[in-house]
């Protein structure tokens, strides 16, 4: 199972930091900001006391949940007009602060960039994106010739993931699925 992280189109977090949200619009007149969670663990915000917002360490004064948003108020930005300057910034934590995963689970940001090999050791390409389909995730793999392949994230297909060596081995039954 893969846990969410920002898409490739999102701005990149600073090195060794993990994106958990993005600041949206202001909420009300008291400096609360709508946070768009970019994590599978939005409940993590209620226990946080501080977070990096862009390149600034901010202290969380209050946290509550409203619809699909997390509403945060930061001590350093007590009024709406000041807090609005945060809109669009990413909220990041260190890798050590990442929510723990069960065995066999990986973060999307760890999967993207892995070299993909078939069981004979042939290079199929590099994972450029993880698509969420509902039933199971699908890895978008770009081959050196520019072709894109879709590989289902199923135990019957993905035989090994080695993050240290940045490799994935797959056993594709039949033909690989062309994305284009």
From TrEMBL:
<dbReference type="GO" id="GO:0043022">
    <property type="term" value="F:ribosome binding"/>
</dbReference>
<dbReference type="InterPro" id="IPR011961">
    <property type="entry name" value="RimM"/>
</dbReference>
<feature type="domain" description="Ribosome maturation factor RimM PRC barrel">
    <location>
        <begin position="109"/>
        <end position="176"/>
    </location>
</feature>
<dbReference type="GO" id="GO:0006364">
    <property type="term" value="P:rRNA processing"/>
</dbReference>
<keyword id="KW-0698">rRNA processing</keyword>
<keyword id="KW-0690">Ribosome biogenesis</keyword>
<dbReference type="GO" id="GO:0005737">
    <property type="term" value="C:cytoplasm"/>
</dbReference>
<keyword id="KW-0963">Cytoplasm</keyword>
<dbReference type="GO" id="GO:0042274">
    <property type="term" value="P:ribosomal small subunit biogenesis"/>
</dbReference>
<dbReference type="InterPro" id="IPR002676">
    <property type="entry name" value="RimM_N"/>
</dbReference>
<dbReference type="InterPro" id="IPR056792">
    <property type="entry name" value="PRC_RimM"/>
</dbReference>
<keyword id="KW-0143">Chaperone</keyword>
<comment type="function">
    <text>An accessory protein needed during the final step in the assembly of 30S ribosomal subunit, possibly for assembly of the head region. Essential for efficient processing of 16S rRNA. May be needed both before and after RbfA during the maturation of 16S rRNA. It has affinity for free ribosomal 30S subunits but not for 70S ribosomes.</text>
</comment>
<protein>
    <recommendedName>
        <fullName>Ribosome maturation factor RimM</fullName>
    </recommendedName>
</protein>
<dbReference type="GO" id="GO:0005840">
    <property type="term" value="C:ribosome"/>
</dbReference>
<dbReference type="InterPro" id="IPR011033">
    <property type="entry name" value="PRC_barrel-like_sf"/>
</dbReference>
<dbReference type="Pfam" id="PF01782">
    <property type="entry name" value="RimM"/>
</dbReference>
<comment type="similarity">
    <text>Belongs to the RimM family.</text>
</comment>
<dbReference type="InterPro" id="IPR009000">
    <property type="entry name" value="Transl_B-barrel_sf"/>
</dbReference>
<comment type="subunit">
    <text>Binds ribosomal protein uS19.</text>
</comment>
<dbReference type="Pfam" id="PF24986">
    <property type="entry name" value="PRC_RimM"/>
</dbReference>
<feature type="domain" description="RimM N-terminal">
    <location>
        <begin position="19"/>
        <end position="96"/>
    </location>
</feature>
<dbReference type="InterPro" id="IPR036976">
    <property type="entry name" value="RimM_N_sf"/>
</dbReference>
